């Protein structure tokens, strides 16, 4: 494509080193879509005839059908998806194909293709996020009466409804969906028409192209349009947060499935066995998700590192943007699908949850609140209950087993009604503040999310 300037062909070693067709072939649909829109601008400018445009469009669609059917031969010596399609188009239709690249560069062409790709993937990922939210809401709704210990520092802390725990991830995923939507808004700007760096003396109607490709705006600086990939970084950052949230959810599931917890049982379809130990049922779907999160986080770092020292405008380093983008998109989509499927078939072991949450120590803070309501300053109440907990440790008993005189020896504010604190149902009903896990709040939140998500 540059033989006019060069007298010797590119070395085979450099061709293999510099080609991108082995991975950017995935942009073929977007490249063809952009070229069809570009041909409309060329016709509107009088640079090609209507008949030539019809030839171009028919040729591009024919090539697209062959690629989709797996019958198109990509050539490494043509480097990338752009030249593979353009060269084949020109071979098939002649001069009309050779006119297609007028007033554009591979620099603005690839910026367009990547934006189109990410726009479509943002939409697909948003659907998968909502599907996972539905799986969480459905599992929580089916087990809305189940209470489990909540944990801080992986130590039992306070009781919470199992549904409340799942709804925490629904909230996280909702913010993730918002970040994806925000990133989509900023990437949804047309760069085509920026040329290699400074546009072209052949002026095309960029707004026409934007309308044809459903872009609400066009870029306003040609150098910025071809040289930055901040839109891709932003999408990757949003994907990294999704991956981190899924990793944390996976860790909870892994713990819940262990014999030590026993809160949840996963289906055979989403677990694996051991080649040696016949009793094993391993939560591989969750473990792989936890592991793959690192790959997605690494994609953000990879692209930021590629961009950080580049002078304006385009540099060949930017070819390294696509593989981390493709990998992160594919990984997150797979993670979302697998975790949603795993949760749809998960079963909650209500008896094991009830046994765990029967630990009276989970209501130690409630006992401090009891003293506060009787006029004791919270720091003193905290100390008094701490002394009661120490007494339990010394005598190997539980808080309800401490006799009233022993409580009153710690503080005269304790009265006979202190034992009512250890009624779990009463304790949960008392958690009525906005965002707290009372039965009424949980029911309202499940209803709200079912409505928002259209959960069955």
Q: Report the portion of residues in β strands.
A: under 5%
Oligomeric state of the chains in view: single chain
How many domains, as an integer?
3
CATH class assignment of the largest domain? Mainly Alpha
What is the rounded Rg?
30 Å
- Main β-sheet: number of strands, strand sense, barrel status? 2 strands, antiparallel
Q: How far apart are the first and last residues' alpha carbons, in Å?
A: 56 Å
The percentage helix is 55-70%
CATH superfamily membership of the largest domain: Fumarase/aspartase (Central domain)
Shape: elongated
| Structural class determined from secondary elements | mainly alpha
Q: Which series of helices and strands comes N to C?
A: HHHHHHHEEHHHHEHHEHHHHHH
Under the CATH scheme, which architecture of the largest domain would be assigned? Up-down Bundle
Strand order in the largest sheet? 1-2
Average predicted local confidence, pLDDT: 96
- What is the number of helices? 19
What does this structure look like?
The protein has 19 helices and four strands. The protein has 456 residues and is mainly α. The protein folds into three domains: 12-102, Fumarase C, Chain B, domain 1; 107-355, Up-down Bundle (Fumarase C, Chain A, domain 2); 356-453, Fumarase/aspartase (C-terminal domain) (Ribonucleotide Reductase Protein R1, domain 1, Orthogonal Bundle), CATH 1.10.40. The strands form two sheets. Strands 1-2 form a two-stranded antiparallel sheet. It has a two-stranded antiparallel ribbon with strand order 3-4. β1 and β2 (155-161) form a beta hairpin. The protein is elongated and about 100 Å long. 38% of the residues are buried.
């Amino acid at each position: 494509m540059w033989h006019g300037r060069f007298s010797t062909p590119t070395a085979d070693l450099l061709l293999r080193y510099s080609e991108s067709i082995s991975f950017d072939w995935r942009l073929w649909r977007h490249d063809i879509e952009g070229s069809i829109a570009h041909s409309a601008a060329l016709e509107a400018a009088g640079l090609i005839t209507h008949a030539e445009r019809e030839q171009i469009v028919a040729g591009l669609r024919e090539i697209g059908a062959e690629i989709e059917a797996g019958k198109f031969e990509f050539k490494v010596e043509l480097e990338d998806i752009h030249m593979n399609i353009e060269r084949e188009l020109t071979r098939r239709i002649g001069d009309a194909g050779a006119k297609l690249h007028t007033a554009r560069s591979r620099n603005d062409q690839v910026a367009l293709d990547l934006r189109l790709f990410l726009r479509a993937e943002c939409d697909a990922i948003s659907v998968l996020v909502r599907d996972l939210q539905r799986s969480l809401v459905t599992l929580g709704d089916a087990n809305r009466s189940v209470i489990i210990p909540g944990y801080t520092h992986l130590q039992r802390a306070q009781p919470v409804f199992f549904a409340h725990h799942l709804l925490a991830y629904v909230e996280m995923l909702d913010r993730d969906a918002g970040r994806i939507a925000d990133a989509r808004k900023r990437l949804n700007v047309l760069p085509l028409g920026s040329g290699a760096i400074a546009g072209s003396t052949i002026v095309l109607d960029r707004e026409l192209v934007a309308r044809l490709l459903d872009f609400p705006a066009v870029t306003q600086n040609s150098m910025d349009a071809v040289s930055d990939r901040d839109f891709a970084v932003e999408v990757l950052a949003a994907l990294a947060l999704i991956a981190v949230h899924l990793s944390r959810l996976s860790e909870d599931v892994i713990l819940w499935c262990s014999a030590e917890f026993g809160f949840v049982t996963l289906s055979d379809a989403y677990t694996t066995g051991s080649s040696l130990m016949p009793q094993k049922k391993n939560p591989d779907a969750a473990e792989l998700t936890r592991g793959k999160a690192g790959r997605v986080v690494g994609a953000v770092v990879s692209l930021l590192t590629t961009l950080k020292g580049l002078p304006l405008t385009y540099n060949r380093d930017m070819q390294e943007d696509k593989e981390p983008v493709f990998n992160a998109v594919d990984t997150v989509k797979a993670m979302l699908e697998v975790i949603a499927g795993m949760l749809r078939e998960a079963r909650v072991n209500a008896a094991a949850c009830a046994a765990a949450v029967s630990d009276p120590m989970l209501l130690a803070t409630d006992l401090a609140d009891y003293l506060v309501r009787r006029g004791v300053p919270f720091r003193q109440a905290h100390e008094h209950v701490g002394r009661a907990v120490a007494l339990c440790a010394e005598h190997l008993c539980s808080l309800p087993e401490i006799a009233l005189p022993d409580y009153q020896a710690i503080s005269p504010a304790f009265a006979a009604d202190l034992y009512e604190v250890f009624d779990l149902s009463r304790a949960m009903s008392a958690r009525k503040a906005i965002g707290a896990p009372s039965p009424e709040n949980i029911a309202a939140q499940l209803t709200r999310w079912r409505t928002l998500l259209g959960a069955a």
